[in-house]
Design a protein that fits this description.
CATH architecture of one domain: 3-Layer(aba) Sandwich
Helix content: 25-40%
Protein name: Lipid II:glycine glycyltransferase (Peptidoglycan interpeptide bridge formation enzyme)
Strand content: 25-35%
Distance between the termini: 43 Å
Family: Belongs to the FemABX family.
Keywords: Acyltransferase, Cell shape, Cell wall biogenesis/degradation, Peptidoglycan synthesis, Transferase
Strand order of the largest sheet: 7-6-14-8-13-12-11-10-9
CATH topology of one domain: Aminopeptidase
Pfam family, one: FemAB
Organism: Microlunatus panaciterrae
Shape: globular
Order of helices and strands: EHHEEEHEEHEHEHHEHHEEEHEHEEH
Number of helices: 12
Length: 372
């Protein structure tokens, strides 16, 4: 199979995405405009007939004082990952990016390797001998994903070192709730007792959930800053969210939504929701330290799940989890909260690196480590 690759327009890229069930929102042309600190490029793969058969959003981060770049395709590219010869896809990409000045490439194949159902995870958490999700037997295993992984190794790609300093990256483990073919009653019955009780409690106490507008981003951001201080993470500025909404809504007027949960006039929880094809994501969340007993977070999550169903979605994605299941793991509460929805833990192939210029690649790694 002979494939060529070249720069494509944002319009070509978006048309290609519209022809697929789902593509990560991180691989939309609009996301390149959100990440303004990176130079961006849409690339397309063409077959011998000149038909566009694959696409990717490339983000270029420059090495300090040298015009060389790390090329990053978060949760992409969108190609045939089940191909017998992945080199026919990945080798032209490497050549194109090297000619554009890249010293290294990082990709995030959107390929599922394993899945664990909610009951499997609950049993694993209850088992003191199981301390990591990967210690538990998965409910499904994708042999084609394993084939793709082996091909990438043969082609010279390697998973980055854990906490390698090249940036936060995208999660390898996520939690998803399949909604296709189900009703609201089905989804409620699939949740655990605590989730159902909290949803009912929020409704009984008068928590209301509404869709916000860009005018409400300042209120969301105040709650987000409170959440960041409480949960010890570095917050993004209000301008980042304003730019994100402007870029994503310019591409599709229902690409991103803001949800607000109020109780007696007070904002108690707020979230952002993103949609591409039949896949929706819970992206950012914020909650008040006060009035936690009214369960605004459960109420807003339930509204986003119902709206995914109403929009014809197939999957509601609660994004990242870690694989630690030990009783003393600091992130155990996160997976316990998400598993209460009755969904499943999903492991992707994770991110993979190809060094095109090893000395520069190592220099960039060191620079990012020092930046923290």
């Amino acid at each position: 199979m002979a494939l060529s690759i070249r720069t494509i327009t944002a319009a070509e890229h978006l048309d290609f995405i519209k022809g697929r069930d789902w593509v990560s929102f991180l691989q939309t042309p609009a996301w390149g405009r959100v990440k303004s600190e990176w130079r961006n490029e849409s690339v397309g793969w063409f077959d011998s007939d000149g038909t566009l058969v694959g696409a990717g959003l490339v983000l270029y981060r420059q090495l300090p004082r040298i015009k060389r770049f790390l090329a990053y395709l978060p949760e992409g590219p969108v190609i045939d990952w089940e191909a017998e010869d992945l080199g026919a896809w990945l080798n032209p990409l490497a050549r194109h990016l090297k000619s554009a000045g890249a010293f290294g490439v990082r990709i995030g194949p959107p390929v599922v390797l394993r899945r664990w159902q909610a009951d499997t995870i609950k049993a694993a958490i209850a088992d003191p001998d199981v301390t990591r999700l990967t210690d538990a037997t998965p409910d499904t295993f994708n042999s084609r994903a394993s084939w793709a992984r082996n091909q990438m190794r043969t082609l010279g790609w390697r998973p980055p070192q854990q906490d390698d300093g090249l940036g936060n990256g995208q999660p390898r483990f996520v939690f998803q709730l399949p909604v296709a073919g189900r009703t609201e009653d089905d989804l409620l019955k699939g949740m655990n007792q605590l989730w159902r009780r909290n949803i009912k409690k929020a409704a009984k106490l008068g928590v209301t959930v509404s869709k916000g507008t860009t005018d409400d981003l300042a209120a969301f951001h105040r709650l987000y800053l409170e959440t960041a201080e409480r949960d010890h993470f570095s917050p993004r500025p209000l301008s980042y969210f304003q730019a994100m909404f402007a870029a994503l809504l310019a591409e599709d007027d229902d690409r991103i939504r803001l949800y607000l949960a109020h109780h007696e006039g007070a904002l108690v929880a707020a979230t952002t929701w993103v949609k591409v094809g039949d896949h929706t994501w819970y992206f950012h969340g914020a909650s008040s330290s006060h009035k936690r007993e009214v369960r605004g977070s459960n109420a807003v999550q339930w509204q986003m799940i119902k709206d995914t169903l109403a929009a014809g979605g197939a999957v509601y994605d609660l994004r990242g989890i870690t694989e630690g299941l030990a009783e003393n793991d600091p992130h155990l509460g996160l997976i316990q909260f998400k598993v209460g929805t009755g969904g499943e833990a999903v492991e992707y192939l994770g991110e993979w690196d190809l060094a095109l210029n090893r000395p520069l690649y190592k220099a960039f790694d060191l620079y990012m480590r020092r930046r923290g």
